[in-house]
Write a structure and sequence with these properties.
Protein name (chain C): Methylmalonyl-CoA mutase
Pfam families (chain C): MM_CoA_mutase
Helix content of chain A: 25-40%
Distance between the termini of chain B: 62 Å
Strand content of chain B: 5-15%
Oligomer: heterotrimer
Largest interface: A-B, 66 and 52 residues
Mean pLDDT of chain A: 88
Helix content of chain B: 40-55%
CATH topology of the largest domain in chain B: Rossmann fold
CATH class of the largest domain in chain B: Alpha Beta
Structural class of chain A: alpha/beta
Organism (chain C): Shinella lacus
InterPro entries (chain C): Cbl-dep_enz_cat, MeMalonylCoA_mutase_a/b_cat, MMCoA_mutase_a_cat
Low-confidence stretches of chain B: none
Chains: A alpha/beta (148), B alpha/beta (329), C alpha/beta (566)
CATH architecture of the largest domain in chain B: 3-Layer(aba) Sandwich
Domain Methylmalonyl-CoA mutase alpha/beta chain catalytic (chain C): 43-558
Radius of gyration of chain A: 15 Å
Chain lengths: 148, 329, 566
Amino acid sequence: MTETNLGDAATAEAPETIRVLVAKLGLDGHDRGAKVVARILRDAGMEVIYTGLYKTPKDVVHAAIQEDVDVIGVSLLSGSHVPLFRELCRCLREEGAEHVLVVAGGVIPEQDYAALLESGVDAIVPQEARSDLIVTTIEGLIAARGRI
Amino acid sequence: MTIVTHSRTAKRGTYTPSAALVKDVLAGRAIAIARMISRAEEGYPEAAEALAELYKHGGNAHIVGITGVPGAGKSTLVSALIKAYAAEGRKVGVIAVDPSSPYSGGAILGDRVRMSETAAAGGAFVRSMATRGHLGGLTRATLQAVDVLDAAGYSPIIIETVGVGQDEVEVVTAAHTVVVLSAPGLGDDIQAIKAGILEIADIHAVSKCDKPEASATVSALQGMLSLGGGSGSHWTSPVLPVSAVSGERIAELKDAIGAHWAHLHDTGELAARQRAICKTRILGTARHLFQQKFQQESATLETHIRAVTERRMDPSVAARALLGWEEIR
Amino acid sequence: MTDTTLFSTQAIDNIRESQAEWEEGALAAFLKTRPEEKAVYETESGIPLKRIYTAADVADIPAEELGFPGAYPFTRGVYPTMYRGRPWTIRQVAGFGNPEATNQRYKYMIQTGQTGLSTDFDLPTLLGLDSDDPMAFGEVGRVGVAIDTMEDVDRLFDGIDLEKISVSLTINPSAWVVYAMFVAVAEQRGLDLHKLTGTLQADPLKEYVAQKEWIYPVRPAVRLLRDLIMYSAKATPKINPVSLSGYHLSDVGGNALQEIAFTMAFTISYCEEVTKAGMDIDDFAPRLSFFFISHQDFFEQICKFRAARRVYAKIMAERFNAKKPESMRLRVHVQTAAMSLTKVEHHNNLMRTAIQALGAVLGGCQSMHTNGLDEAFAIPTEEAMKLAIRTQQIIREEINVTSVIDPLGGSYFIERLTKDMETEMWKMLDEVQERGGAIQLVEEGWFQQKLADSAYATFKKIDSGEKISVGVNKFADEASSTADVHIHPYDDHCTQLQIDRLKIIRANRDDARIKSLMAELVEQARSDDVNLLPTTIELVKAKATLGEICSALREVWGSYDEPMIV
């Protein structure tokens, strides 16, 4: 981790609030999981920006930048995760927003994990994951990345 | 069941000092603007100087507050306004405020659901903010976010809040033009009256004007306003039916917002408004700082609570002592 | 109709008395030595369950509430002989890649013993987009077959006799266009339209609240269904133009009661729209069909099917004054619960599916899709589909559950639970009515909120371990891996092939004719009382694409903005 002097920032009175963009990419209408995750994260004290359905990778990156989120969480059940995440991560790099962490969820076969990680996804959450694990994974990723 | 993470190339971040962000904010770079807003919201002391610098560059934006009861259709309306302004090539800023959960402190912010992103929004900057439950802090944080957008050249800047709760209403009244949105059929009465936000409106909008009940709401509002009499100002608050869904009459609302802005300029009322806004901001921030101070000095506060409980001290002496205005005997 | 009770008052009193004795005596003593595992027992949807049911629990249910199979109120089944006359149709849904890829799968499944066809479409097709639309990126032929023009429909059913085998089309917002293509293909083949059999899903209201595939705002979408129902009733009288789908309500979090009650609320709205347009209820109601889930709570699911039949029969008879018995019988296609499948130890999914399938049969379904064991990963492989078909064949051929109609009927427990569920469904229907009806509530997001709340409540139960998923949150085997599961491959060339075909089509058609037909369609859409099907059929015959037709109407009606519900 890059050592940075945060000066007074580190003594800010409230602990920094984690902001997460929960997004749906492409044409997949399955939003049950995304909405459940949004509630889990809210109940863990995070601020969740929910995008609604039918967003393009470009839309999602645009929103993530304006909202200054720490994490983009995308749930996909349409099988098109490999091309869509590849495009999402490419857009992030293009906009100079690689600091935003990308977490994938939904129906993602283990066979595709390598391809997703390769394209820039930071974590893959299986459908069966417990809520506390989702929360601690996000917290852990942010802690490892450091304050920006 | 485990979560697979990318251990080899885990992302690393570096902290860019706020002073270094100022230039990028002024140049309109989205990442810097967004980061600066976050720091304002978090209240980083480190960012104070940068925000003060940005404040000097502001003062050009027309700030529009939009409020209404839940379900009135605010975010749909704002989305339609964004498109209308974007079509004119204007850089719209939006701060959409929604309540934080009182239980967890977290929030689900859904204003973007109805806002089309890159394609239709042009160069709009939309930011969702949670109330975070801090007394007075909401006004401070929201208006500092407005300062950042103002310095970056956004105008108009729309502040959208739910018109319930003192803080949310206070934020909106710190705008140049206040639009109160009512919806037909949500109850027999006009909900804005119940919420006590009717009187702050420079413009009344009635949503869902394609519904038959809408005209009743419009005439009820008009009736109410005619009873109000002259307030010394020459501005008469118009009542405008709108339908954000079909985009109907959005242009009229946009024009009314523009007309009010022109009115403020032409009549010189703008100076009075600005003064009121500054006052709200200073007092709001001061209140927030007091609150913080007490939280930080909770031990002192506890001592005073005990003393007042045991009737060794009266509440007003304790309060003055807490502010450092009087020695404790 | 007179209300006759099944038991004498004397018999019931005796039972109550001896039950009290048993509870205070033997039971109380036993509970002292061995307390029960849970303090509260209830169904998945929260209906309390007693330890045991007796005749006293069903004493208030009139005999007429049960009736006989094939007769009002159809509690015991929709046909007089049920599976003795004809077993349920094995109807596995399939669709992927280009039309010829799906066509091959169909031929394989027919050879394996499948008795009806069912098509899944890819997301661009469902949402009215052509394969070359930028929003179709990465989605063409992925979760279903890609259809852009009527030529694609022709390829899909190549070598399949559409007068002989029934075809179910899982198509929604763009259903009227796909129906037009289907009719156009049948005409081109010289088939008798009156002999075509099959079903379109075409249930728009459930899209806004559950499956979330939409193009237009709610009311125009309902109008399109109205047009489809009315046109199909005359042109293709043996096709079911709509399959009212509770399955998706369950899939998005709804419990068994919400699944049925909300579906019935939507049914009421559709029937109101069609009858308002001047068609007699008995002229279209016999062709309304249904699609429900068979989920995990075994007995509750069986009772759900029974209660649903009763509720529907009463709605049609009492609310719409239907006269024909065919208008009152709820014919249902059932799919086992994809939500119950796990990636972990995925072979367990075979057992889950078999039990759910048995429930559907005991509940009296008319056709069924059993999920492939690999559907928690991707769309099923050929091997997985074969096992799924075999599951139904084993239930049908080996275990003798088809000889007696409604074999669980008369069980104290089953009858009580059926009645309780029915009562709860009526309460929900009354609430919908009081709040302004289904269409308005869909627009307001009321159903959406109910279902999201229910989904979160279910999640909390799983998360806390209260609801058990074997191999996942109980008896988990840390060593198990899913990395070597063979999954259905995606054909990367499929998109390009569709795009190339679109290019060829667009270069070889009469654009002027399409332009004038399209202008006509747009004009017709502006007024509410014209049926859009005839012009749409002309358009697809002239080689207009699905995306072109759907986007033309978007200019009239706009698109749908979802309400913010989390």
